[in-house]
Amino acid sequence: MRIVIMAVGSRGDVAPYTGLGVRLRQEGHEVTLATHALFEKLVRSRGLGFHPLPLDTQEEMTSRLVASGTSSPLQVTLAINKVVAEHARPMADAMLAAARQADVVLLSPAGWIGGHVAEGLRLPSMGVYLQPLTPTREFPPPTVTTRSLGGWGNRKAAASLRSVGQKPFRAVVDQLRTELDLPVLKPDAWLAQLDAARWPICYGYSPVVVPQPADWPEWNHTVGYWWPAPDPDAKPDSELVDFIAAGPPPVYIGFGSMPAEDSDALSAMIVDALRASRLRAVVNSGWAGLRAAGDDVFTVSEVPHDWLFPQLAAVVHHAGAGTAGAGLRAGVPTVPVPFMVDQPFWAQRLERLGVAPEAIPFRKLNAARLAAALTEATGNPNYRRRASEVASRLAQEDGALGVLRVLAQVTASRGPE
């Protein structure tokens, strides 16, 4: 069966689908990942087919996010949505071209335009999401706030956000549906149509981390993590190997695809925190452009988390869904420094699991707070113990198997025409 996975976003929004794609390929399917050109090497090196989607997420999202700031999760969510909306027509065309070579389409949250494409081509489809987006009474929409709005408010806010997020795309979607000989529908009507069709969604994180809400429909499935596929040709940097072996386990500090207005100031603050806490560190430059130097600091541009994290004393990161999962998988304590969107949600989950001290919002980050958090995370054995317990539970899960089971149901029924 020919499967196309449509993934829109930053590296953290794309990498987990390489692991899912490899597993689907191992089961005999032909898998293509439709995503941005920035990630072509990542995709092809894992033996998967690649189809380009427009938008350079590093260049355009970074510049937009730096300009908008990170103080309001809702404003950041809307800013990101606006960036994608500006590319909606070429995005729709690229998804249509990719789907014409598919038997079934799998959609990431930001790839939802592919749902209209699949409907127009009469292809079965399903959601493969990395954040819990189905409305529930149990928590508010993770991309907006971590503060409960009450049961009714939580559910209403999430439902409203789904609808509001589609409005900037309205003209393009209407045009696309007309070209595909589909009736033009308002966003709420289209979402209601999906619900009526029992459109399945698999959530690629562990129920240990976010238990499935009791009020979710039965066609939503929390299946477990899809770990990024390792690069078969990757070899550890010999200097990094030597650095790790040369002293006590270092900590990791990296903020992934998060931008920084002043890379030099942020780098200097990190060095000050490391000196105060007397810890060695591996610093990931990332999209923030971190540059830390010193005998006890090693800066890397990219390194596999599954290889590096288990060797560390603790990890400091932006609490993106994928990096948070990688830290849990490695069984190491975490210091979450959330920037925006769903990151405060995942930081809160890490705290509740007992693997992390209190999160430090990025806008409140300074050397003293970071040093104190690092000292707490590495010095209190309870964090390491709890992290090890969570890692043991995650090791028993098989998130890709959950997708395979739902996929079998989807392709067997073909859904409503």
Automatic annotation (TrEMBL):
Sequence ranges assigned to domain Glycosyltransferase family 28 N-terminal in this UniProt record: 3-139
Source superkingdom: Bacteria
Pfam families noted in UniProt: EryCIII-like_C, Glyco_transf_28
Domain Erythromycin biosynthesis protein CIII-like C-terminal: 289-395
Gene3D superfamilies associated with the record: Glycogen Phosphorylase B
Name of the protein described by the UniProt record: Glycosyltransferase family 1 protein
Record organism: Micromonospora tarensis
